[in-house]
């Protein structure tokens, strides 16, 4: 039976409605609704990257969850296929082929060019952490491919697991992630080639968590539950944060990352549901949202062989609309690489339906164990009250800080091949009449695909600095939403041990804009992803601004930067 696809006509695909806000260098489905990235991995036999994603090829709302597919040689230029590779066509997955992962071997562990997908098969909906959980609504299933991921055969023995550990306490159980985990193998005393699986969810009235499994490398259908990996408690709030870590986890990934000194630390990224922001966790006025989180800490093994990751530091991985992150070890650059889902934030359903598509994937991001040495303090508060950093005291009154680093994939520089380049600096800043407000010349752009990279050395009297993005020849910020997403980004004071001189680190800002998608990286450790939907685009331009705390003849910051206008993929 051939199911008709709800794809736009040739005329609709060329229309302003379809293309007005549609990104050009981000990965997205050819049409329809899409959400979570799935099965990110590298096929060494064919030298290709794979990215799958949750997709509804039949419409522009969530439903009929299938897997779309794209391939790339470099994670920059993607070939996106116009048909789903996995569909909800069995009794055990009739309500959706949900999120999962890819392992680059056959079911028997042979690296012979065959590939295996591990996914959540759903047979009953709705499923939500606030509803009673129906055991068996989420099961674990497999599919294999012998042609590089272009066609798949579901395993005849599906589902291979019938549900979560059957003590009746689970509130959800989905989104398997499968990989090797060097740190866990060391902790458990298992061989380095041991394969592990995570399945995310929560334990009712207790904690969000993710269940850890040991997977038989010679038989990927054989999963042994080690136990719940996380026990931080419901609505756990990191030190100094104005948000908590929620009630339920989705899409958890583990990784061992080395700091610059070669010391390995363990990390978990997870999508958090039921997060409270602002106020307190019991404040009825605080917002309840989804957010992308992370944590790091030591692994503890009890006498029964169960493993637990203890909280040392963590927080939000992105302070904007980014969610459902998935990651993999990229052997070509030898780094952990992550992508996430960027939804149509704040776009009314009527406008979203008219454009015939919804959502895209983020640009690929590199995850690292970031380290700051010889820190003496911060203008943003006490070091002991920054939950996103592991703080280690040194001799001489300084500290070493560790956190999760996030930066754009290095291959993204290929987007600049045909772009126009404009440089700017402190000398370009001019003061307005009150001598407190400083602005750069307005830089006009020819495209809606641009990148900006700059460093700002904030002086002691600098109160605020930022970037205006104009989409009209009337360049006024009156009435504009100048802060659609916001976050605290601490800057630290570093001490030169040789001279004893102390100096605040520079603010590094790296921005990508693509038609309606804005991704901002601060100092390769804080990220904000947002969506901008300009009603009309008469004139695109950028302008840096800064405000001092008092009148001065000298700009309140030093700045050096470059803009690439006309990125192409």
From TrEMBL:
GO molecular function (one): sucrose alpha-glucosidase activity
Domain of life (superkingdom): Eukaryota
Entry keyword set: Glycosidase, Hydrolase
One Pfam family matching this protein: Glyco_hydro_32N
Any GO BP: sucrose catabolic process
Coiled coil: none
The Glycosyl hydrolase family 32 C-terminal domain, residue ranges: 412-550
SMART domains per record: Glyco_32
GO cellular component: cytoplasm
Start and end residues of each Glycosyl hydrolase family 32 N-terminal domain: 26-371
Family statement drawn from the similarity comment of this UniProt entry: Belongs to the glycosyl hydrolase 32 family.
Entry protein name: Glycosyl hydrolase family protein
Source organism per UniProt: Fusarium solani (Filamentous fungus)
């Amino acid at each position: 039976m051939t199911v008709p696809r709800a794809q736009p006509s040739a005329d609709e695909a060329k229309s302003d409605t379809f293309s007005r806000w549609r990104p050009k260098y981000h990965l997205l489905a050819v049409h329809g609704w899409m959400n979570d990235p799935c099965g990110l991995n590298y096929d060494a036999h064919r030298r290709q990257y794979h990215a799958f994603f949750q997709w509804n090829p039949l419409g522009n709302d969530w439903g009929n969850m299938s897997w779309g597919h794209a391939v790339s040689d470099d994670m920059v230029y993607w070939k996106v296929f116009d048909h789903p590779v996995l569909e909800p066509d069995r009794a055990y997955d009739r309500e959706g082929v949900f999120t999962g992962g890819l392992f680059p071997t056959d079911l028997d562990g042979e690296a012979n060019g065959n590939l295996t997908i591990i996914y959540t098969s759903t047979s009953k909906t709705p499923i939500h952490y606030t509803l009673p959980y129906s055991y068996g609504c989420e099961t674990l299933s497999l599919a294999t491919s012998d042609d590089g991921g272009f066609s798949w055969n579901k395993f005849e023995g599906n589902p291979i697991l019938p549900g979560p550990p059957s003590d009746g306490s689970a509130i959800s159980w989905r989104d398997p992630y499968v990989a090797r985990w060097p740190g866990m193998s060391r902790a458990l005393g298992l061989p380095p080639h041991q394969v592990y699986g995570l399945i995310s969810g929560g334990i009712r009235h207790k904690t969000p968590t993710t269940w850890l499994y040991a997977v038989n490398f010679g038989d990927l259908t054989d999963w042994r539950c080690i136990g719940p990996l996380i026990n931080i408690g419901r609505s756990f709030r990191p030190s100094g944060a104005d948000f908590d870590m929620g009630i339920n986890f989705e899409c958890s990934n583990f990784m061992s990352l080395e700091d610059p000194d070669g010391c390995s630390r363990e990390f978990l990224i997870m999508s958090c549901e039921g997060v409270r922001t602002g106020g307190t966790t019991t404040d009825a006025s605080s917002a309840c949202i989804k957010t992308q989180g992370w944590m790091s800490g030591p692994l503890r093994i009890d006498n029964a062989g169960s493993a637990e990751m203890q909280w040392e530091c963590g927080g939000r991985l992105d302070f904007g609309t980014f969610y459902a992150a998935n990651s993999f070890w990229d052997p070509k650059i030898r780094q952990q690489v992550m992508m996430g889902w960027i939804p149509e934030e704040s776009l009314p359903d009527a406008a979203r339906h008219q454009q015939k598509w919804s959502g895209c994937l983020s640009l690929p991001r590199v995850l690292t164990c970031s380290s700051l040495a010889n820190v003496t303090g911060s203008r943003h508060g006490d070091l002991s009250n920054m939950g996103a950093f592991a703080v280690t005291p040194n001799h001489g009154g300084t500290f070493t800080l560790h956190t999760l680093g996030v930066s754009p994939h290095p291959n993204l520089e290929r987007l600049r091949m045909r772009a126009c380049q404009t440089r700017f600096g402190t000398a370009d800043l001019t003061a307005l009449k009150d001598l407190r407000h400083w602005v750069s010349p307005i830089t006009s752009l020819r495209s809606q695909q641009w990148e900006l990279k700059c460093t700002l050395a904030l002086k002691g009297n600098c109160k605020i600095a930022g970037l205006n993005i104009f989409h009209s020849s009337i360049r006024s910020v009156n009435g504009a939403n100048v802060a659609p997403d916001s976050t605290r980004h601490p800057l630290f004071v570093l001490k030169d041990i040789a001279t004893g001189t102390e100096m605040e680190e520079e603010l590094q800002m790296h921005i990508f804009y693509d038609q309606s998608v804005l991704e901002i990286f601060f100092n390769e450790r804080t990220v904000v992803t947002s969506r901008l939907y300009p009603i009309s685009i008469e004139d695109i331009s950028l302008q840096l601004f800064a405000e001092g705390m008092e009148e001065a003849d000298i700009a309140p910051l030093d700045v050096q930067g470059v803009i690439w206008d006309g990125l192409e993929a």
